[in-house]
Amino acid sequence: MSKLMLSTVRLSFPSLFEHAEYKGDSLGKYECTFLIDKDSDQVEHIQKAIKAVGTDVLGKDWSKAKLCLQDGAEKDYDGYENCFALKATTKKRPVVMNKDKSLLTAEDDVIYAGCYVNASISIYAFQNTYGRFVQAQLNAVQFCKDGDKFGGGDTFSLDEFEDLSGGDSDDDTIPF
Fold first, then answer.
1. How far apart are CA 65 and CA 72, in angstroms?
2. DSSP 10-29
3. pLDDT for 125-164, tens place per residue?
4. How far is it, in rounded angstroms, from Cα 85 to Cα 92?
5. Greatest distance between any 2 Cα atoms in the chain
6. At residue 72, what are phi and psi to the nearest 5 degrees?
């Protein structure tokens, strides 16, 4: 196993506070995908770790394994172009923290698809009846900075609404 720190990578498909789901069924694990610019120095470190762990555990045929690092160009999602996508999972809930290292919950609404994070992952390899794998274990995620949200969804402000606490009004009209 090889532990790596990822710095200022984009977060995609985060299931960090509740188990990930597929077609409404729990997968029994937490997961997310990190997007790393193809020209980032981090890519070389990740590839070296994958090769070292893969070779050590699976031998010379490690390159035939299913890898946690994929070319983003092969995915049809916003933000994946010119990036590598690294999927990391864990059965134990990962540590999720803010810039100041204070722990976050889902209700804090700080972590979202499209924000930038730092992350601790571990690369590991295994073989089973389904094949050979070199995967990433998700250890911890730290919010780094805001980014454009994936999947749309506008933000709103409380200033968009009027204060209705001042009186009783029977006027049910909507002012458009």
1. 18
2. EEEEEE-SS--EETTEE-SS
3. 999 999 999 999 999 999 999 999 987 555 556 677 887 8
4. 22
5. 77
6. -60, -25
**72 is in which domain, residue-wise?**
2-149
Name the pTM for this structure: 0.84
Q: Alpha-carbon distance 10 to 147, whole Å? A: 8
Contact between residue 20 and residue 31 where contact means Cβ atoms under 8 Å apart: yes
Distance in angstroms (rounded) separating the CA atoms of residues 70 and 22: 20
Cα gap 170→175, rounded to integer Å:
14
Residue 59 within any structural domain of the chain: yes
How many domains does the chain fold into?
Answer: 1
Q: Domain with 28 in it: what CATH number?
A: 2.40.50.140
Residue 134 DSSP class = E
d(CA 127, CA 67): 12
Query: How buried is 130 (Cβ within 10 angstroms: 0-12 exposed, 13-18 middle, 19+ buried)?
Result: exposed
The 10s digit of each residue's pLDDT in 29-83 is 999 999 999 999 999 999 999 999 999 999 988 889 999 999 999 998 988 999 9
Q: How many helices (H) and strands (E) does the chain have?
A: 1, 10
Strands 66-67 and 131-145: parallel
